């Protein structure tokens, strides 16, 4: 059976790392909305032309156009043996549309994997990064601290800064928005009977082993 898969997880849950391993292992195309948007615009597909009108004005691309671009992509030859969606659907309108058009194309979603990490751990992961002001070396309070506290290993500098993206209030807000967005989707796929939760609070290899066990059972 072909793997028609969607990958979910909050920022910092390790989705990108696992996505790479899944694609390498199962040789299925990684369909990320950012990539297919760029390709559709570059190739001037009907939906790409439509999307560009909104992007050029700095506006959000409406759901029907996003759905159209994903539908175009799922109609291409390389997805006959499966695919992995990343970053789509982002809301219930998109989820319902995907259910409809993926079934039409004979490519219905048959597995949703959610890499679950509790928000407290994600706060620690995402707010721990700090950078040397002098040479730009990057560290992490928990996972990659400086050898001597307050001194850069590379240049010996003592001044560090945090990017705005890594500041606690920014990260907290980002997680809150993502939780609100993901919760209805998780409920929807749980009801569909295709949701699998994987514990992301484990070493990378163990997370992938758990994912592999789920995917091998579907194949």
Automatic annotation (TrEMBL):
Major subcellular location class: cytoplasm
Entry keyword set: ATP-binding, Cytoplasm, Kinase, Metal-binding, Nucleotide biosynthesis, Nucleotide-binding, Transferase, Zinc
Catalytic activity line of the entry: AMP + ATP = 2 ADP
NCBIfam families: adk, PRK00279.1-2, PRK00279.1-3
Positions contributing to AMP binding: 33, 38, 59-61, 87-90, 94, 163, 174
GO CC annotations on file: cytoplasm
Origin species: Ligilactobacillus saerimneri 30a
Function: Catalyzes the reversible transfer of the terminal phosphate group between ATP and AMP. Plays an important role in cellular energy homeostasis and in adenine nucleotide metabolism.
Region (NMP): 32-61
Protein name (Swiss-Prot/TrEMBL): Adenylate kinase
Family: Belongs to the adenylate kinase family.
EC class name: transferase
Keyword ATP-binding: yes
């Amino acid at each position: 059976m072909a793997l028609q898969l969607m990958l979910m997880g909050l920022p910092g849950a390790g989705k990108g790392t696992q996505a790479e391993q899944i694609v390498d292992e199962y040789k299925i195309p990684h369909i990320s909305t950012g990539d297919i948007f760029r390709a559709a615009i570059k190739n001037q597909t009907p939906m790409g032309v439509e999307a560009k009108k909104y992007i050029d004005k700095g506006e959000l691309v409406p759901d029907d156009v996003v759905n159209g671009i994903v539908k175009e992509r799922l109609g291409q030859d390389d997805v006959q043996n499966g695919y992995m969606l990343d970053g789509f659907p982002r809301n219930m309108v998109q989820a319902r549309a995907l259910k409809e058009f993926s079934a039409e194309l004979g490519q219905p979603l048959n597995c949703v994997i959610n890499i679950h990490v509790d928000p407290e751990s994600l706060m620690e992961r995402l707010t721990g990064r700090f950078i040397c002001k002098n040479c730009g070396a990057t560290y992490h309070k928990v996972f990659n601290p400086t050898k001597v506290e307050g001194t850069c290993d590379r240049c010996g500098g003592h001044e560090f800064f945090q990017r705005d993206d890594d500041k606690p209030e920014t990260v907290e807000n980002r997680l809150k928005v993502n939780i609100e967005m993901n919760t209805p989707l998780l409920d929807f796929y749980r009801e569909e009977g295709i949701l699998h939760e994987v514990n992301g609070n484990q070493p990378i290899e163990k997370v992938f082993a758990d994912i592999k066990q789920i995917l091998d059972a579907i194949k």
